[in-house]
Amino acid sequence: MYAKHKSDARTLDLPGRLVHVFVGLDKLPSDRMTVGLTEVHPETEMTPHTHDDKEEIIFVIDGYGEAIVGGVPEVLEANTAVIFPIGVEHVVKNKGKNPLRFVFMFNPTHDFEGAR
Questions:
Q1: 48 located within any domain
Q2: How many angstroms separate the CA atoms of 41 and 32, rounded?
């Protein structure tokens, strides 16, 4: 199997957001990447965090918000990509009344152990 629909993705209910993992974990394994969809609840924010051993890239599908990357604010809106470098603290804030939805990609893979 080389494809996975959202209805078959593994969903993680994390503080302020739902994370749907399409590639990685036990659903559609990959040796090098984890890919999925995050839905940040309206008018909330994720917990600030750092990935000490992996790079993350997000691509915003819809919604409006802000990412703080290494202390630098970046506007999040549809068709915007943001990179979270290895070891740099980041947080995503949904400033809208609707979910902020973005595709995420991790390299190397991410198992979400200890995710907050």
A1: yes
A2: 29
**Residue 68 is assigned to a structural domain of this protein:** yes
Q: Which amino acid is present at 60? A: V
Average pLDDT of the chain?
94
Q: Is the dihedral of CA 6, 54, 116, 97 positive or negative?
A: negative
Q: Is residue 114 situated within a structural domain? A: no
What residues make up the domain containing 25? 9-107
Say how many domains are in the chain: 1
CATH of the domain at 16: 2.60.120.10
Q: C-alpha distances in angstroms, 76 versus 10, 18, 100, 111?
A: 25, 18, 9, 25
Reduce the DSSP state of residue 29 to 3 states and report it: coil
The pLDDT tens digits for 65-90 are 999 999 999 999 999 999 999 999 99
pLDDT band at 115 (very low <50, low <70, confident <90, very high): confident
pTM reported for the whole predicted model: 0.93
